[in-house]
Amino acid sequence: MTMTTKPDTPAAVTTPIQNSLTAGRLPTPAPWIILGAAIAVSAAIFGVMAVAGGSGYNWGGALLVGALLYIPSVWLFSVLVEGRRRAMDRLVTALVTGAFVLAMIPLVSLTITVVTFGLARFDAEFFTNSMRNVTGEGGGIVHAIVGTLLMTGTAALISIPIGLMTSVYLVEYGHGRLARGITFLVDVMTGIPSIVAGLFAYAVFSIFLGPGTRTGIAGAVSLAVLMIPVVVRSSEEMLRLVPNELREAAYALGVPKWLTIVKVVLPTSMAGITTGIMLSIARVIGETAPLLIAAGFTASVNYNMFDGRMQSLPVFVYTQYANQGNPPQAYLDRAWAAALTLILIVMALNLIARLVARFFAPKFGR
């Protein structure tokens, strides 16, 4: 009996699995190297142009062209090494990053310019004196700071309750034509030019107090007209983000609707509401046209909102720049320093809003 043996079969050849997601990858510093090379090429081109034309070197243009060269370059290298999928990801990343940097350039430039020119008069005299009996050098902005804080604070006291209660009505109670009409009017008020709000306040107070009346309360009312739609829209969006499960849980426990709004809905959305209120204050604190019409300007400190004209920081900056005296540099220095002060006040308000949102927001979890 013969036994046949089965011939050995050759071992199966294993082929590596190609995965397009992990096939190839540029080194980590590759995008920076490509960016540096693109800027170097652009700098060389602008250097040749500057030498040929006999003009100064354009650093801004060199950086901009270098950034534009980087976008197709990083896409091309990524296509050759990583494939089209990763190349498209790097292309979109480069475009988004470039848009962000482009948007930051004016902000950084403005900040550097204001700080550079504003520090010339950033001293104790500037913050302790007013412009009363000052025609040349010296003087300060204490009267403008007082007026800005009083009018903005009064506008906040007027607009925040109105805007918050309006948003609560629209979210919790509003249905039908009335709610749609209020929403339409709020949207229209959002686009009102600031000077129209100033003319409105001036006309209202002229009817009751006589033509030509300019007071701090009139300026506060004009700012409140601009603040109310911003408070309404921001608060409305924050209230709509509160989960309905929280409301239903409170109703299931027998809590009335008004108490649910006060104890559940508002505390839950407090962080977002506070941020919206601070945005509305930052939106109106730098307004010039309505205050110039409704509140006017003065060189003295005025603490009475209902009597006499009242100065504000934006109007102070405008008047110092538009009505330059002798020496003109003193007026420009005061204008830059007042602009820097206004920016610092807005920054302080935003920091306060962050702290309020952090400490008063509800704490979830265990």
Automatic annotation (TrEMBL):
It holds the Pfam family BPD_transp_1. It is a multi-pass membrane protein. GO terms for biological process: phosphate ion transmembrane transport. GO terms for cellular component: plasma membrane. GO terms for molecular function: phosphate transmembrane transporter activity. Part of the binding-protein-dependent transport system for phosphate; probably responsible for the translocation of the substrate across the membrane. Belongs to the binding-protein-dependent transport system permease family. CysTW subfamily. This is Phosphate transport system permease protein PstA. It comes from Agromyces bauzanensis.
